[in-house]
Write a structure and sequence with these properties.
The chain is α/β, with parallel strands linked by helices.
């Protein structure tokens, strides 16, 4: 058998060795055919029954979750159940069946393609990835329509159980409901044709601590069922039919990795102190109130970034103040006094915030998004600020403003905040009068002017994902230029360093909440640059803490200065590797 490798995006670290288990892709099996008029009502009924069946299946899976299951699982399945209630999926296909006299599978696929096209227009990569939820739900519906089994067959389940941790799922995509089954049967890894670092597949894989690689493009076409494969989640490489030498090498690596994972659990309750005794704050990022369970399990000392976009997604109406208040309040109360930094709405150019009504923008990344959008929609912003302030009475809430570029935006924001406070005072509604206001530094202009922002804010948070994108002028979701996305570019590091120094000069805290915060290869460099607060996915907290425990700040500061003096990314990477060896 020929040995070859496929490269994708490693989204959950670790090494897995096992035999490929290919999942079918129902979307590829959809055909289009016309129906006579007298069969249309039956076809509509067949579609409605399929929706009902999928709802029942998902509800059953959600109900079967174990108490210790990651919080993400129930939340994501809940999201899929809500999507089935949305008319765009449950009703519009019926109209397509009637108007075009077509089969139900074709109608729901047409509608899915339309919705996905609209998601593609969204600039924010995290929100754009939510199109995969639509695809996953539709595939489940189509499987029911085609008469496919919704779950693994008994034979497959038995096979998986008997070969515990020996099977590697090879799929076009993995839905949250599928992931539950995989978890129950302890599959060794996930690899998929599609997806990104912020896809649900990636988030789930990290929460389950299962090696995973996405965006492999044609893995399902290239890999045969039962073939021996190696998944290297760190390098994003899949090796098919490895030679004996490579297999032996990876078996050794796998043993070392598993040993490291066991060791990490031992430091869960250890304080994050450097060798020279400096305390480092390790916090977690969340998307949903339900994610708090994962934060607590990780040992994080607070929430450094709560994305509020989820409240506004997949719906035709806006969440009102009460709904938002309850969501923010529940997180604040659950964290029992630990800091909770909540970012105001950070949607893209789509004003309606609904996939059905996305407004196209010629350059979404440079257009009306984040704080620009909020300032242009006063009522939406006022409602969210009131909800945030009300929730601040129930915990230590901080408010974070995304995508600041100019001081005038910050000053306008403060005016909005004062108006919201005044309205609450008038109604005798309690809130934290001293609620802290922070700003995200994710545009080079803001990093260069960070000292001025720090002077007028209580804290800064560096969003490295967008900062890299804007600094290097590349769309990190564009495959054609994705190779240029480089956290170790000297200009990126200089901007981060400038921001950290600006915060220190003004006596204001600075954190990093982008992907760089959860990358253990960069922890020592960031510490050397002066960073003392990190916020990341909960599953990364322990690996970052381990780096902190082995860091000597007095040595790292000099090494970081040396890195910042370099102008070549390759040389920077070599020096950073040496720093990590110490």
């Amino acid at each position: 058998m020929t040995s070859f490798s496929i490269h994708g995006v490693g989204v959950s670290s670790g090494i897995a060795i096992g035999h490929a288990h290919l999942l079918s892709n129902a979307l590829l099996e959809v055909v289009h055919y016309q129906l006579p008029k007298h069969l249309i009502d039956d076809e509509v009924k067949r579609f409605s029954n399929a929706i009902t069946t999928v709802k029942q299946d998902l509800a059953q899976i959600k109900g079967s979750l174990r108490k210790n299951a990651p919080a993400e699982l129930a939340a994501f399945i809940g999201t899929h159940l809500l999507m089935l209630e949305d008319k765009s999926l449950s009703e519009v296909p019926k109209n397509i069946i009637r108007n075009e006299q077509c089969n139900a599978e074709w109608a729901i696929k047409l509608q899915m393609d339309d919705i996905v096209d609209q998601f593609e227009q969204i600039e924010d990569s995290y929100l754009r990835e939510r199109k995969q939820d639509v695809i996953q739900v539709v595939e489940r519906i189509i499987k029911v329509l085609l008469g496919h089994q919704a779950q693994l067959s008994t034979e497959q389940q038995n096979s998986a159980l008997h070969q515990e941790r020996k099977l590697i799922l090879v799929a076009h995509d993995v839905s949250p409901a599928d992931a539950i089954q995989f978890k129950q049967h302890q599959f060794a890894a996930f690899i998929t044709d599609v997806g990104g670092a912020t896809s649900h597949t990636a988030i789930l894989a990290r929460s389950l601590n299962i090696p995973s690689i996405v965006a492999l493009q044609r893995a399902r076409d290239l890999i045969n069922d039962g073939e021996l494969i190696i998944v290297d989640g760190d390098l994003g490489v899949v090796i098919v039919n490895p030679s004996k030498e490579i297999l032996d090498e990876y078996k050794l690596k796998q043993e070392q990795w598993e040993l490291e994972q066991q060791k990490l659990q031992r430091i869960k309750t250890t304080k994050a102190l450097t060798i020279d005794g400096t305390a480092i704050e390790l916090m977690a990022n969340i998307e949903l109130p339900e994610d708090v369970a994962a934060v607590k399990a990780s040992g994080a000392t607070g929430i450094g970034l709560y994305r509020t976009e989820f409240l506004f997604m997949n719906r035709h109406d806006m969440p009102n103040e009460e709904e938002q208040f309850e969501a923010y309040k529940s997180v604040a109360e659950a964290m029992k006094g630990a800091p909770v930094t909540i970012r105001t709405l950070d949607l893209g150019a789509d004003k309606q915030m609904n996939a059905d009504t996305v407004v196209n923008s010629p350059n979404p990344a440079l257009g009306l998004r984040a704080i620009r959008l909020c300032l242009s929609e006063p009522q939406i912003f006022h409602t969210q600020l009131r909800a945030l302030l009300r929730a601040s009475h129930y915990g230590k809430i901080k408010i974070l403003i995304p995508m600041l570029c100019m001081l005038s935006e910050l000053r306008q924001t403060k005016v909005f905040l004062e108006r919201a406070k005044a309205s609450l005072r008038k109604e005798n509604i309690p809130f934290d009068e001293n609620v802290e206001l922070g700003g995200m530094i994710e545009i080079p202009a803001a990093a260069i002017n960070a000292e001025a922002f720090a002077d007028e804010l209580d804290f800064l948070s560096i969003g490295t994902n967008d900062l890299i994108q804007y600094t290097l002028a590349i769309d990190r979701t564009d495959d054609a230029v994705a190779h240029l996305y480089n956290p170790m570019h000297p200009s990126v590091l200089k901007l981060i360093s400038m921001t950290i120094k600006a915060g220190a000069k003004q006596g204001k805290a600075v954190s990093v909440c982008g992907e760089m915060a959860g990358d253990a290869k960069l922890t020592k460099l960031l510490l050397g640059m002066g960073l003392r607060q990190f916020s990341m996915h909960p599953s990364h907290v322990l690996s970052i803490k381990q780096q902190v425990l082995h860091s000597q700040l007095s040595e790292l500061s000099g090494q970081a200065r040396k890195v910042l003096g370099l102008t070549d990314s390759d040389k920077i990477e070599l020096v950073v590797n040496k720093i990590n060896l110490n």
